[in-house]
Every structure is written in C-alpha cells, then in structure tokens.
Amino acid sequence: MNNLASLESVLGYQFSDQELLNRALTHRSYRKSNNERLEFLGDSILGFVIAETLFHQFPRAAEGDLTKMRARLVRGSTLALLSRELNISDFLLLGEGEKKSGGFDRDSILADALEAVFGAIYLDGGFRAARTAVLNLYANQLRDIKPENLKDNKTRLQEYLQKVEKELPIYEVISQSGKPHNLKFEVSCKIEHDSSPFIASGTSRRNAEQEAAGKAFETLMTSASED
What we know:
- α3 (about 35-55) crosses α7 (about 105-125), α3 (about 35-55) packs across α8 (about 125-135) and α10 packs across α11.
- By secondary structure, the chain is mainly alpha-helical.
- It is globular, with a radius of gyration of 18 Å.
- Strands 1-2-3 form a 3-stranded antiparallel β-sheet, covered by helices on one side.
- Helix content is about 60%, strand content about 10%.
C-alpha cells in the first residue's frame, strides 16, 4: 500500500488518526474491520453538503431541479470519476479474489471508498473539515452543473445517438445479488454490435441502467471532443 500522506495531500486534509483513513480504504473482502460503516456515514454527509450548497447556489431553483442536480452529483459514476482523479485505487485494500477480478477499477468499490473517506474525515476532524473536503473535490462539478441541463443519462444518450444516426442502446441485466431489502443490480449498456458494453451497478435496475448510460454518454462525449 502506498504512503497515505500522498492521498492526504490531494485530499487537502491530514488525519490525526491514520487508522480511520486506512479503514476507509479497506474493502469487506480484505478483513472484517472494513469501510462499510464509514461509507454509510460518508454518504449522508456528502448528500447534505451537496444539498446545502445547491440550495444556496441556485436560490430560484425548484425542489425537483435541486433533487435532480444532487442525484447527478452524488451518483456512483461521479464518485468513481472523482476517486480516479485522486488515484484511490492505488491505496485500496482488497481481498485476493477482488484483486484478481479487477476490483481496483470497479466503479462501485471506488465510489464506496470515497464516501468512506468523507466519513473518516468527519470522525477525525468534524463536520467543517468534511464539508471542506467535499467542496474542494466537487469544485468543478458544482461550477458546471446547471438546472437547465438536467435530462437523465438514458435520455441524453438516446438523443445523442439519434443525432449521430447510431443504433439505440440495448440494456441487459448481467447479475442480481443481495438480500431483498438490499439488492444490487449489474447492468450492461451496449450501443454498437461490435463495441464493448458499458457496465454499471445500482440498487435497482433503473439506477444501474442510468449509471451505465452515463458512462456511455461521457465516453462518447470525450471521443467526440477529441476528433
């Protein structure tokens, strides 16, 4: 595991209790003392900080628009993107099975770890420290998000594919796991017969499809900007 000081540097926060950060980066496949409880805490902190910020940033926005903007900012694909910017995968502690299956680059694991880091910062330094860390990391996303651009991922992807005269996406459930009260769906989004599918997970089929569509749309937009 790499020196955690480099991660603290990019987070802009130095832990008094390094074990909290270490636990935040520990997947359940590695040991019993893992990041699941910290993830639960960090998820709530993230949701509140983003909601409060949007409330003040868009004083005329309707509740529905605020809800949609918050959902876009705290969704798994956004958290995974931010995790990759922080190189969190370099610090994760995973069991051998997760390592072999590519867990270091799995969106759900990266997203959960980042939420756990927010929870760890809160426990170590209090709410103000956690809020600062969230806002620093989300600065670009909060700058770019607008109430008038709130179409969901599946709609945006479909409209773009129609515009460029490509086949419409095909969604397929790859797996379903977990107990009835805590289901997890893994879904693929395929947009061309010969292309690799975009894979994402969520707590419902709809959420997973939205996540997969978001990954596909962002990839297409990046490719289009490079052409």
